[in-house]
Amino acid sequence: MKRTIFSFFRGLTVSTSLPGYVIFFIALHIHRLAIAQFTVTGPDHPITVPVGGEAVLPCHLSPRTSAQDMELRWFRLKFSAVVHQYAKGQDQYDGQMLEYHGRTELLKDDITNGNVSLRLRPVRPSDHGQYTCLFQSRVFYEEAFLELMVSAIGSDPHISVDGHQDGGIRVVCHSTGWHPEPQAQWRDHHGQHLPSASEDISKEANGLFHSQISIVITEDSNQNLSCSVRNPLVNQEKIHMVPSLAELFFPRVSPWMVALWVSLAVLI
After folding, report:
1. What average pLDDT does range 22-38 have in this prediction?
2. Residue 195 — pLDDT band, cuts 50, 70, 90?
3. 266 to 26, 239, 242, 253, 257: CA distances (angstroms)
4. How many Cα atoms occupy the beta-carbon half-sphere of 205 within 13 Å?
5. Most buried of 37, 44, 60, 115, CB within 10 angstroms?
6. Helix (H) or strand (E) holding 146
7. Facing residues of 199 across strands?
8. Distance separating the N- and C-terminal Cα atoms of the chain
9. Neighbours of 147 (CB within 10 A)
10. Domains in the chain, start-ordered, CATH in brackets?
11. CA 91, CA 37: separation in Å to the nearest integer?
């Protein structure tokens, strides 16, 4: 014969042949497990920080519970990719990834209420992406996900002439130092997008992006142009205005000059 143990744990049944004190301690342990549960909450929106700045990644327990005796861990895509770890009442650096050495700090001022934030500085392009914040007690653990977005506004666009192509002059627009990958385009004097002859967005050794786009100017391209490079994360752009290049590379002979030369020829 089996019976249910206490109303707070429905569905658990044990044999009535077990001693009463064993049943009591089993139920008490299960009850403690049930009330020890908590949830972990992070920000509900990505945190955006410029390269070289300071990021604060908040995490807190609900309901309010002291985390002083818990293990706390911030990691990247896998559990072993440790950004920062706290256990046994102090910070633990043995398993921390080398790229985060000396750049992390656990803010513990409100740890007794379950509010703990991780400070990361200076921020690098490689810090961009998802983080996991994990709280673990003796009998339970829970985690939350955070998104850190790293931004950088690059250099002013630089214009250069790169020889002849398809019966015209190939003009190139360069800009470097962007994050994340920028959006670059040519525009006419009305601000309308013009198709590029080539586009090349590449990542440099420092993790920032370099943009290079080109356009072919022909004799009929009698208009002012601009090169725009934009950071889509923070919606900021840099623009370089280019005066009409067709007149510079394809000078036209004016009618009055033709008339003058004809008149001189007749006189001679």
Report:
1. 52
2. very high
3. 120, 51, 42, 19, 14
4. 0
5. 60
6. strand 141-151
7. 213
8. 131
9. 15
10. 2-35 (no CATH), 39-150 (2.60.40.10), 158-249 (2.60.40.10)
11. 24
Residues 6+ apart with CB under 8 A from 26: 5, 14
Model pLDDT for residues 212-268, shown as the tens digit of each residue: 999 998 876 657 889 999 999 999 999 999 876 555 444 554 444 444 444 544 454
Which of 6-15, 32-41, 185-194 has maximum average pLDDT?
A: 185-194
Based on its alpha-carbon atoms, the radius of gyration of the chain, rounded to whole angstroms, reads 33
Exposure of 71 by Cβ count < 10 A (0-12 exposed, 13-18 middle, 19+ buried)? middle
Q: State the pLDDT at residue 15.
A: 47
Which token pair is 44?
């509900």
CA 9 to chain centre: 45
Count CB atoms within 10 A of the CB of residue 208: 20
> 3-state DSSP: the chain helix, strand, coil percent, rounded to 5?
15, 45, 40
State how far the Cα of 199 lies from the Cα of 211, in Å rounded to an integer: 8
* Mean of pLDDT over the chain: 83
* Residues ≥6 apart with Cβ < 8 Å to 257: none
Distance between CA atoms of 133 and 76, rounded to whole angstroms? Answer: 9
Model confidence pLDDT, tens digit, residues 39-67: 999 999 999 999 999 999 999 999 999 99
